[in-house]
TrEMBL record, chain A:
GO terms for cellular component: early endosome. It comes from Adineta ricciae. InterPro entries: Rab-GAP-TBC_dom, Rab-GAP_TBC_sf. The lineage of its organism: Eukaryota, Metazoa, Spiralia, Gnathifera, Rotifera. Transmembrane segments: none annotated. This is Rab-GAP TBC domain-containing protein.
UniProtKB/TrEMBL annotation, chain B:
The keyword Metal-binding does not apply. This is Ras-related protein Rab-39B. Belongs to the small GTPase superfamily. Rab family. InterPro entries: P-loop_NTPase, Rab_GTPases_membrane_traffic, Small_GTP-bd, Small_GTPase. The keyword Lipoprotein applies. SUPFAM superfamilies: P-loop containing nucleoside triphosphate hydrolases (SSF52540).
Length: 315, 222
């Protein structure tokens, strides 16, 4: 499939302007590098501290690998050799990036890569690209997730004020609990695989924003959240509403709406300071043929104002 | 009118325990009556709802919050705990380590839930795999007795004692409610009165809370 050819570019394994020969060279070098990572991990048992680290990591990985996408043909059946590959890649990733180690959710993100790439070393490096270089992956720390949610709240206020107002008047409503899994697993459990992976590709392309996944989140709320506001549903019922919609939503409608939301966002004359950074990596493509929006400061505390480069610029 | 949407109370329960002890399977067995061998790891939060009868004529809607064994966002877990009136502490009877970790789950839950009162139930899972058992019934019972909480062993696969587990904790909470040791309070979602009793005196705390609000208008807070 074409995905097998394209994903290594989207996941930063090859530069977009590389030649065929260069790509073969990169693959070769990366293969050797991967073998080194594995060898280093296998000798780590000599050091008691490292041995303990890998022992713990392996225990969790083993539990998750056998229950990730097991209905998918690529992972189906007892003693499926692809499960061993998945485990190897996750272990080696923990060795390569011990600060990240392994956290639940990673196996879910690796599984589609493995089914598309179908090669251990290539899949490993694509996974590294996914984890380390894509914003759309929320690394499993409180502050990164909090940052995503902060952006999401501000975008929601801007793009869908009625829904925002509804959440704001509920206790814990602005925690947006129902959207956590969307962000953590990149919609993988919300849409059938083919549609979810289209969303992944759309996000990886960094077209006009680095946070397209947040536009997808807003889009889901816009398309499927009307009842919530109309029926004045509480925090719990909102979660129940969206959980029951999982795998029953139309990915193509949601994507279309997300694109139109992004377009609307681009046309804004002014954006709040907190959203200024959501298109940095997308580069000059953003706003290149249009006006550059004015940024206004919405910081509330003195501490925030001090750090904000737009401090003093009011709406 | 008795229908599936009418109930007297709503109890919010949280299910915690190590990864793969069978939290999601227990909930699925109870709420949907199905068992799947390898359910996907829980990420974020999931929740299920089922109505049980705690005594003839008294229906309670159980709101069951499933958590990830390896929860990463402490700030969020705190919110789940705070609003729970009951905690199911789960361990796997075929995995001794998961049993040794129950103490820390219990301590964390206790620390997060206070000042509210909460009911705990210790649940051992997977008793259909008797030959692989690592934690004896006596050990589980001793732990529960020591901490003065209830105890039950279950199998989600054979749906053994699954119903009983949830009815047990629901009854215990209901008894404490009728004894006045747990109250319906506004601003706390652990226990709520259902729509069925909207006209009975049980909903009074909510009405009072609503009546209080207009007074705020005269104050500087708005």
């Amino acid at each position: 499939s074409v995905a097998k050819e394209v994903w290594p570019f989207l996941l930063h394994l090859y530069p977009f302007d590389s030649t065929f020969d260069q790509r073969e060279q990169i693959r070769h070098n990366k293969f050797l590098h991967y073998q080194k990572i594995r060898a280093r991990r296998e000798t780590a048992v000599d050091d008691p501290e490292q041995a303990q680290f890998f022992h713990d990591v392996e225990a969790i990985i083993e539990k998750d690998v056998v229950r990730t996408d097991r209905s998918h043909p690529y992972f189906k059946g007892d003693d499926n050799p692809n499960l061993r590959v998945m485990k190897e890649i996750l272990l080696n990733y923990a060795a390569y990036c011990p600060t990240m180690g392994y956290t639940q959710g990673m196996s879910d993100l690796l599984a589609p890569i493995l089914t598309i790439i179908q090669h251990e070393s290539d899949a490993f490096w694509c996974f590294v690209g996914l984890m380390n270089r894509t914003i759309f992956i929320s690394t499993p720390t409180d502050d990164v997730m909090e940052k995503q949610l902060r952006y999401l709240r501000e975008l929601l206020l801007l793009m869908s004020p009625a829904f925002y107002e509804h959440c704001a008047k509920l206790s814990d409503g602005l925690d947006l609990l129902f959207a956590h899994r969307w962000i953590l697993l990149c919609f993988k459990r919300e849409f059938p695989e083919r549609e979810a992976l289209r969303m992944w590709e759309a996000c990886w392309s960094h077209y006009q924003t680095d946070y397209f996944h947040l536009f997808i989140c807003i889009s889901i709320m816009a398309v499927y959240g009307e009842d919530i506001v109309q029926q004045n549903l509480g925090t719990d019922d909102m979660l129940l509403h969206f959980n029951s919609l999982a795998m029953h939503m139309s990915g193509s409608i949601v994507l279309k709406k997300a694109r139109s939301l992004l377009y609307k966002f681009r046309l804004l004359q002014r954006i709040p300071c907190c959203l200024h950074d959501i298109s940095v990596l997308a580069g000059p493509g953003n706003w290149d043929s249009h006006h550059v929006p004015q940024v206004y400061c919405i910081c509330k505390t003195d501490q925030e104002k001090e750090r904000c480069p737009f401090s003093g610029i009011c709406m | 009118m008795d229908n599936m949407y009418s109930y007297d109370y709503q109890f919010r329960l949280i299910v915690v325990g190590d990864s793969t002890v069978g939290k999601s399977s227990l909930l699925r067995s109870f709420c949907d009556g199905v068992f799947s061998q390898d359910p996907d790891p829980t990420v974020g939060v999931d929740f299920n709802v089922r109505i049980v009868e705690v005594k003839p004529g008294v229906k309670v809607k159980l709101q069951l919050w499933d958590t990830a064994g390896q929860e990463r966002f402490r700030s969020i877990t705190r919110a789940y705990y705070r609003n729970s009136v009951g905690v199911l502490l789960i361990y796997d009877t075929t995995n001794y380590v998961s049993f040794t970790h129950v103490t820390s789950w219990l301590n964390e839950a206790r620390a997060q839930i206070q000042p509210y009162h909460s009911v705990f139930l210790l649940v051992g899972t997977k008793i259909d795999r008797e030959s692989e058992r690592q934690v004896t019934t006596e050990e589980g019972k001793a732990f529960a007795d020591f901490h003065n909480i209830s105890f039950i062993e279950t199998s989600s696969k054979s749906s053994l004692y699954v119903q009983e587990a949830f009815t047990m904790i629901a009854r215990e909470i209901y008894d404490m409610l009728t004894e006045g040791r747990i109250h319906v309070q506004s601003g706390w979602d652990g226990v709520k009165t259902g729509p069925k009793s909207a006209n009975s005196n049980q909903s009074q705390p909510i009405e009072i809370a609503q009546n209080v609000q207009p007074r705020r208008n005269g104050c500087c807070s708005s």
